Amino acid sequence: MTDWMTIEQLPHEMRPREKLITHGAASLTDTELLALFLRTGIKGKNVFAMAQELLDHFNGFAGLIHATPQELQIIKGMGGTAKRAQLAAILEMARRALTQQLSENTIMNSPQAVKQYLQLELAQLKHEVFAVLFLDVHNRLLSYQPMFRGSVSQTMVYPREVAKTALALGADGVVLAHNHPGGSVKPSPADLKLTQALKEALALIDVSVRDHIIVAQGKYLSLAEEGLL
User: Fold this and answer.
1) How far apart are CA 139 and CA 11, in angstroms?
2) Angle at 217 between CA 65 and CA 37, to 5 degrees
C-alpha cells in the first residue's frame, strides 16, 4: 500500500474486506489480513502500519501465535485489553484448528499439515525444545508433548521417558521433532545419534519412529524424506 493509505483512501476493490469477499482470504497479504482483523489504527499510525509492525516485531504469524497479551502490549495501539484478547483468541483458534486436523486425519497423508503445526509450535522459540507427536495405529495424533528443553547435545533426552509416555497413551508410533533457533535445519551428529537411540528404545515396546522433523523459522527438514531415518 503506497505510503500506508488508510482503508478509506483505498479504491473500493483494493480494500481488504471487499478483496476477501471477491477473491477469497488467500488473496490477502499477511498485512491486509491482520489489518482486516484489527479494523482501526491509532492517531499517527493507520491500521496497515500497525499490522505490519506486529508482523515485523513477532516475525510473522508464527511468532504471533506464541505472543502473550503482555507481549502484544509492547506495540503502540495494542494497549487495550479487548484488542489484545481478540487477537490472542483468534491465534489460539488457528492452533486448535491444526491440532484438530491432525487428530482427525492420518498424519502421514498430511505431511504439510504436520510441518505447519510444528512451525507454529516450535519455530519461533528462542531455546531448543524436543517434542514428540504420539500417534495411534491409524497415524492420527493422540498427543503433542514438548518433553525436553535445551540443546539435544547438552540436555539429555531420556528414551525411557518417551517410551513411558508412549505406553501410557497406547501409541503405535511417534514423530519426533525439535527446533534449531540458530536458523539451520541441517541435522547434527547428535540429532542423528538421538534418533537412532529412540528408534531402538521404542522398538522394544513395538512403537515405531515415523519421522524426525527439524524446524527453524520458515524452514523444516524431515529425516524420513532425506533418507536419514
Assistant:
1) 48
2) 35
Diameter of the chain by CA atoms? 66
Q: Which of 97, 132, 165 is the last residue of a domain?
A: 97
Cell, residue 117: 503445526
What is the block-wise mean pLDDT of the chain (229 residues), using blocks of 10 residues?
A: 54 68 82 83 82 86 74 77 75 78 70 82 85 93 90 70 95 94 89 93 96 89 92
Per the structure, how many domains does the chain have? 2
Same domain, 131 and 213: yes
pTM over 0.85: no
C-alpha cell belonging to residue 101? 486436523
Domain end (from 51, 76, 97): 97
User: What's the Cα-to-Cα distance from 32 to each of 20, 37, 69, 166, 186, rounded to whole Å?
Assistant: 10, 9, 21, 43, 34
